User: Which sequence fits this backbone?
């Protein structure tokens, strides 16, 4: 009916065993998974901590390029961190208009 | 040639279908599969017993795979939001190439975290996001969203049900956001798979060349033919393609993949790359092409089959179309068993089976002496392929689209070879547009003309009286009866 050689039979058995084992493991993981709660780090989730965000995270935000990200980090280092989000206006390149766009993307602990 | 993968695949598919209709516990099916596997190891030396047992394992494994896909983990977003939610916070990564329409953009978001009722939880699963905003997004963007989640509406047309269609893609929830409601923020970029990002970047370059150099009408057709983007096609054209039974030319399928594979092989041969690296490179480029066109079932099927055909050279084995098709089915269904209930999957595989099985039989009806004349040979071949596909797909098209297209055989005989030319020229144009931009307008002008002729042919054929008929709703049982009858007639003809 199938006309399989001994080697082909072994390969098929191997593949079917792996497939069956794999589905069993997935089933076990799915049925025994639990909901993991994450501590809410800030009041407004989705925002970045101005004192912890690295350069890549800052550049990931719309409106912040490499130079501005660098200036934010330099300001943070020179002033021992941000105390308020509105300190962003002290950075060269962040005008009132830009600050309005950026202020909702950050928080300070 | 023996075809063990075919039997195994058929039984695997039967197992999936049976598991969908029967209410059986997962462990019962799993135990049956495990016992059959155990006995097949014991009876490995006995032909008949081993064969029967291995087919039983395939059958039960199909059931196990489907039952497994029905069970969602506790953290799955569909279990956290079973039907509808108030405003939730959601973070996740864009998992496909966003589709832009006139006023909205839609994409699939792979959910990572969800904030409901003041607490954040880790989650998994996919959400269809539809934003009526002018923002631009790309694959791999990690987003923060605030909006309402709801289950997709279950509106249906013919055999198509939108909720089931999304469910078959493992999407159980939709997040729709109006112009002035909700919040979207981009947290970071490039959080996706680098190979997929690379494939989409190539796609964007190709699309840019097409849109920049062609009229919107021609660009829409070429985008559909080469890149699988159908959102720019006019309703009128889609309607004509449907009525003539030639809509498959704009759905990326084996036909398009075959042409692309041919072009890649030809280019690599011209630049004198030896056979082994040429085949390996072609398989890799086809995988990239498969990803950039959205990796739908027909493209995955065609890519797997092409890969099997090309890799046969390395294994020094004769390739059988049914075996390679079976491997493609197994791969697709192992990843997502719900695909078996999808129209595109059924049409794609049935068309290949019909062509492989019926076309040689139709061709043999014609006298051998006609095959010696080159033009007649070509005509007989296109007629055989076109009519084989028509005979094989007719009941499914009648069931799903409620349409009976008499003109389909003639239309496909003309349009399929013609659109092969357009696909080849369109692909060359897009490549030239990237490599030698100043030469692109020349290729663009040629493509513009070819697309216009394609449209004129379609309009002419659609205007023929009685080209197609609208049908009432047909029970699926009729389709089964049709295939049973077809198989018995062909088998009887073969025996006689």
Assistant:
């Amino acid at each position: 009916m199938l006309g399989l050689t001994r080697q082909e039979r072994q390969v098929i058995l191997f593949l079917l065993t792996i497939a069956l084992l794999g589905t069993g493991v997935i089933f076990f993981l799915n049925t025994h998974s639990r909901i993991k709660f994450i501590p809410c780090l800030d009041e407004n989730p989705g925002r970045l901590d101005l004192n912890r965000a690295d350069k890549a995270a800052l550049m990931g935000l719309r409106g912040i390029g490499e130079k501005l990200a660098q200036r934010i980090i330099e300001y943070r280092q020179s002033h021992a961190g941000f105390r308020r989000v509105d300190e962003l206006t002290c950075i060269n390149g962040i005008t009132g208009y830009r600050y309005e766009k950026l202020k909702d993307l950050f928080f300070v602990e | 040639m023996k075809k063990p993968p075919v039997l195994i695949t058929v039984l695997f598919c039967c197992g999936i279908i049976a598991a969908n209709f029967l209410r059986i516990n997962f462990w019962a099916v799993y135990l049956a599969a495990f016992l059959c596997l155990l006995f097949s190891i014991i009876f490995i030396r006995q032909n008949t017993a081993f064969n029967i047992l291995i087919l039983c394992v395939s059958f039960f494994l199909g059931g196990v795979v489907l039952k497994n896909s029905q069970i969602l983990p506790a953290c799955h977003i569909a279990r956290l939001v079973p039907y509808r939610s108030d405003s939730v916070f959601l973070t996740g990564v864009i998992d496909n190439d966003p589709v832009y329409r006139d006023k909205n953009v839609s994409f699939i978001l792979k959910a990572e975290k969800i904030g409901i009722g003041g607490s954040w939880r880790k989650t998994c699963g996919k959400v269809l996001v539809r934003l009526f905003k002018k923002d631009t997004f790309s694959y791999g963007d990690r987003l923060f969203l605030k909006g309402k989640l709801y289950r997709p509406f279950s509106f249906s047309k013919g055999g198509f049900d939108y909720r089931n269609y999304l469910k078959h893609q493992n999407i159980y929830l939709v997040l729709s956001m109006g112009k002035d409601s909700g919040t979207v923020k981009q947290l970071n970029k490039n959080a996706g798979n680098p190979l997929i990002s690379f494939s989409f970047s190539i796609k964007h370059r190709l699309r840019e060349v097409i849109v920049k150099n062609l009229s919107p009408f021609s660009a829409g057709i070429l985008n559909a033919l080469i890149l699988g983007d159908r959102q720019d096609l006019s309703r009128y054209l889609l309607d004509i393609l449907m009525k003539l039974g030639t809509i498959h030319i704009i759905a990326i399928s084996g036909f398009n993949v075959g042409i692309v594979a041919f072009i890649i092989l030809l280019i690599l041969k011209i630049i004198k790359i030896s056979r082994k690296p040429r085949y390996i490179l072609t398989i890799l480029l086809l995988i990239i092409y498969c990803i950039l066109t959205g990796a739908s079932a027909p493209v995955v099927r065609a890519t797997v089959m092409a890969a099997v055909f090309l890799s046969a050279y390395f294994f020094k084995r004769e390739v059988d179309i049914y075996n390679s098709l079976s491997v493609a089915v197994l791969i697709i269904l192992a990843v997502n068993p719900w695909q078996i209930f999808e129209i595109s999957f059924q049409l794609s595989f049935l068309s290949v089976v019909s062509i492989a099985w019926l076309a040689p039989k139709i061709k043999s009806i014609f006298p051998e002496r006609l095959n010696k004349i080159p033009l007649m040979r070509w005509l007989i071949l296109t007629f055989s392929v076109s009519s084989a596909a028509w005979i094989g797909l007719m009941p499914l098209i009648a069931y799903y689209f409620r349409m009976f297209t008499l003109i389909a055989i003639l239309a496909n005989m003309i349009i399929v070879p013609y659109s092969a030319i357009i696909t080849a020229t369109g692909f060359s144009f897009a490549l030239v547009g990237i490599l030698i931009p100043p030469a692109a307008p020349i290729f663009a002008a040629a493509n513009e003309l070819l697309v216009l002729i394609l449209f004129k042919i379609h309009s002419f054929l659609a205007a023929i009286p009685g080209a197609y008929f609208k049908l009432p709703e047909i029970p699926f049982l009729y389709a089964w009866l049709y295939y049973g009858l077809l198989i018995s007639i062909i088998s009887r003809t073969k025996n006689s």
Remarks:
- The first helix of chain A runs from residue 6 to 31.
- The mean pLDDT of chain A is 82.
- The first strand of chain A starts at residue 37 and ends at 38.
- The interface with chain B takes residues 1-4, 6, 8-10, 12-13, 16-17, 19-20, 23-24, 26-27, 29-31, 33-40, 45-46, 48, 56-57, 60-62, 104-105 of chain A (CB under 8 Å).
